[in-house]
Amino acid sequence: xxxxxxxxxxxxVVEDGLGPSVLRNVDILTDGPAIHTIGADIHVDHQANDTIxxxxxxxxxxxxxVNTHHHFFQTFVRNRAELDWTKLSVIEWLDRIYPIFSRLTxxxxxxSSVTAxxxxxxxxxxxxxxxxxxxxxxxxxxxxxxxxxxxxxxxxRFHAGRGGNTLPKSEGSTxxxxxxxxxxxxxxxxxxxxxxYHDASPFSMRQVVVAPCQPVNAYRExxxxxxxxxxxxxxxxxxxxxxxxxxxxxARHGMRTVDYxxxxxxxxxxxxxxxxxxxxxxxxxxxxxxxxGVSHCPEPVYLVGAEVTDIPAMAAFGVRLGLGxxxxxxxxxxxxxxCVHSAYxxxxxxxxxxxxxxxxxADFLDYATKGGADLLGRTHIGRLAPGxxxxxxxxxxxxxxxxxxxxxxxxxxxxVGIGTTTDLTMINGRIAWEKGEFPGLDEAKLAADAExxxxxxxx
Length: 459
Fold this sequence. Notes:
By secondary structure, the chain is α/β, with parallel strands linked by helices. The protein has two domains: 3-63 and 381-443, Urease, subunit C, domain 1 (Roll), CATH 2.30.40.10; 65-375, Metal-dependent hydrolases (TIM Barrel), CATH 3.20.20.140. It has 14 helices and 16 strands. The strands form two sheets. Strands 1, 2, 3, 4, 5, 14, 15 and 16 form an eight-stranded mixed sheet that branches. The model has no long low-confidence stretch (mean pLDDT 95).
């Protein structure tokens, strides 16, 4: 297997289980998919054909970011003024956007996935969970298969959330009939994907999560059957929770969303929810007790105008936390590194109003790395240490952008922000992005193919 020796790293963010720390002026040796050694003056036989030397002078090296919530297919509806949340009510927006989603083709799902994953990789993300809940009938059932194809092309470590919607619009959902499935259809395809792709090995590049879209758009039986399948097959559960739907769930079922899902069993250490900005402290405490996790998506807060998620309360109660980009319907980029900065700045914005201290900037890097790995049930990603996956990214800080900042690598991303792409992103010991290129791929052609597919959809 190919080994890489990164020489003279200016700083490496490591984690020994007691919290992140920084090693200065050290080398990193990878061996196949794993990190072999981190330390000063590592020597290898430079004549060996399997060791590639990289001059890492000036580099800050970080563990790869872990994206825990996204909707890749929405990449094709970003930066569109006619779909701007600020100009439409939520109902108007849903009525306009879902018919567009229902016209997407299988090729759209493939090319939108390539587009989103490429942007994620460029900005240091090495593992991505995508919540793919859009299954137009004409597009068929092999949409997530195509996502795995896209991930393999780019070398992304990919967790596929097989979503679905089963409740008709006539019964209170927001989903057009062209995107509805039965519970049996949904569960059968989840089982097919698990059998075809799910790999539970330590350095797995492919995993499957059972992820019905959200309680307001699915029958109770859909969630009940999801729990049964996931627990039987040993895979994770995911859905949207606490983004304004709790009053609707209460009106339908006599209880808010967290209690509703706990009663079903859709909670626990194998379960994580997206968003959760509207939840009461008592609900967060229940989630902490059950070890149910939260994927915090900060950037939709700007666009949707919802309440800023109470991250300090979640952390204080012990809720497991990761970060997510969310889809282009509420975040027009796929840049998780930018989300680290946004998450920190939003907490600064509301700290005085909520009368709490701003969490340390380094905490948000932790949520985007080790926290995300924990939500996805991965023990070999999310931190840099010997034996862990060689998932990392590097920033050359010998630029004007970083003058005055280099004393604190732990806070740099959250507090200052990174305005450029990484200089290198490595996934599972393979370089996926370096010096502005995807090795072995023609980015211009990838972009042109995606644009050509987009042009076939009426928006």
